[in-house]
Amino acid sequence: MENINTLKQSLEQQKISLSRYGIDLLCRLILALIQTRCVNLKKVAAALYGPAQVDSHYRRLQRFFAQQISPEIFATLILARIAQEGQHLYLTLDRTHWKLGKTHQNIFCLGILFQGVSIPFMYEVLGKAGNSNTEERKRLMKKALKYLKGYSCTLLADREFIGKAWFTFLLKQKNMDFVIRIKSNSWIRLQNGRETYVDRLSPGQRRNTTKTYETVTLYGSLSLNLICHRPPKEEMVYLVTNHSNLNGALKRYRKRWSLETTFGFLKSRGFDLESTHLTDPKRLKMLIGVLTLCLLWGLRVGQVLNQKKPITCKKHGRKAISLFRLGLGIIEFNNSEKAAIRMFDPLAVY
Q1: Domains: count for the chain
Q2: 333 domain-assigned
Q3: Which residues of the chain, if any, have pLDDT below 70?
């Protein structure tokens, strides 16, 4: 019960646009999700703290998600807990997709890198199979940029997120650079006037080597810098950026994988998001918003524990357990310990 009171006080201080009743249920929902590691509302209702019957809890959860509240109410709260004013942020853009019967659940997400994981910041349920289009990308980015005016940003994205109109939009944004992978058949013009496909620039390039080309012309009129990298085993990687530091572009791009890690935490390696029966886009977005608070809470608790006792690394160099899993385990199994209550505040600044 003390955990719930701690959460309630923190959320109320953030002036989230929910009633006291809504905040109370949100706190109970967060704890129940962490304990069950599942988004099936029937199972969550059974773990929900309180004297009411399971069916009553289930109806409360149904009403909570039926309110059609936008998860943007959490945006300011999340940003304040993972970034400081003026800090440089890495933004990651990607999709995750699965099917529930014949319904395509296609989540288009913009994340902010924090502790090696991209925290979902803005997201849309596309309501279709396949890629997002330029207008959907621009709409999502505009929503995010409303909250990011005091920050400089680097956007990282895979070759799905390309196109002349999209790159033109990004080039117009202040305090933003990007590193985006392009397809091997992209047509470019070099500074000497030579026109070619990008994959013809690197025949015979040795493995684990990188070549850079300044100011190439893409899509006939866009001036960008090009990086051609041949990994030790995988296929060639072609990146374009508007940043002047080409040597660091590949290292920055590798941070993009952090959003894939997040999708894993939300799905099979965490809360089993694919098992949800919520199909309404607004309800599904709200569920992702609540799961984001769970993710952030687990990371913050794991961060504190790692500072007190660093996680050991295995022979391959990676940590024996992620901060997220470490934190979630402590919350799940020790959430009655009074000594740990302060750590259980997901909004505390450590």
Answers
A1: 1
A2: yes
A3: 1-15, 317, 333-350
